[in-house]
UniProtKB/TrEMBL annotation:
Keyword Cell cycle found: no
Protein name: Hcy-binding domain-containing protein
Species the sequence originates in: marine metagenome
PROSITE patterns listed in its UniProt record: HCY
One function term, GO molecular function aspect: methyltransferase activity
Alphabetical list of InterPro entries matching this protein: HCY_dom, HCY_dom_sf
One Pfam family it belongs to: S-methyl_trans
Keywords from the named record: Methyltransferase, Transferase
High-level lineage: unclassified sequences, metagenomes, ecological metagenomes
């Protein structure tokens, strides 16, 4: 059996441009500092598209990602599902989800990840949420977009979706059930569905 160790991000590029920190101009990496010390990303002189973001990474530039959404939801008391972990939390703690995204943006994240890490059909079906896969993922992206639009203060923040290697857990144990591991076809089908929803 093939081992799946995969996280894929599908970027939702905002209409606004992303500050360019590749050049030697006022928004370059040479003048970039943390939000705690001072943030020079928002001077608006240089912008880039998705291709520019890729070029920045290819050139060894830095892009600040958010932290783990599922662990932060859990830390802040959102209900966790015994088999699907944080995936269904979007239905039960959407306000908290949006607040966490806003906090990551305030901390300097340039890319925030929608709560889609544990929301594939494989994860959600065993907990009775199989018929809500599209709704849960759509609402997860909408929560991230709301946070971006409300909290970005003029900063271009990119929203990403995550397709993880996570598989359903044994109820109540937070460990993988070896007898319930999906095969390669099931994994590929789940990834394909989630990618289509997030695209």
């Amino acid at each position: 059996m093939t081992k799946w160790l995969l996280s894929i991000f599908i970027f939702k590029i905002p209409d606004k441009k992303i500050p360019n920190m590749c050049s030697n101009g006022p928004n370059s990496l040479n003048t970039y500092t943390s939000p705690v010390i001072g943030d020079k990303r928002n001077q608006g002189q240089n912008t880039m598209t998705y291709d520019g973001l890729k070029q920045r990474l290819d050139a060894g530039g830095i892009v600040i990602l958010d932290g783990g959404m599922g662990t932060e939801l859990q830390r802040r008391g959102a209900p966790m599902d015994p088999a699907a972990w944080c995936g269904p939390a979007t239905l039960h703690a959407e306000k908290l989800l949006t607040e966490i995204h806003a906090d990551y943006i305030a901390a300097g994240a340039e890319v925030i990840t929608a709560n889609t890490y544990a929301s594939s059909r494989l994860m959600l079906s065993l907990s009775g949420y199989g018929d809500q896969v599209e709704e849960i993922n759509r609402r997860s992206v909408e929560a991230a977009l709301r946070a971006r639009d409300a909290a970005s203060r003029g900063t271009s923040v990119v929203v990403a979706g995550s397709l993880s290697h996570m598989v359903p857990m044994s109820k109540g144990t937070m460990t993988v059930d070896p007898g319930n591991l999906p095969n390669d076809v099931e994994m590929a089908t789940a990834y394909d569905e989630l990618a289509r929803i997030l695209a």
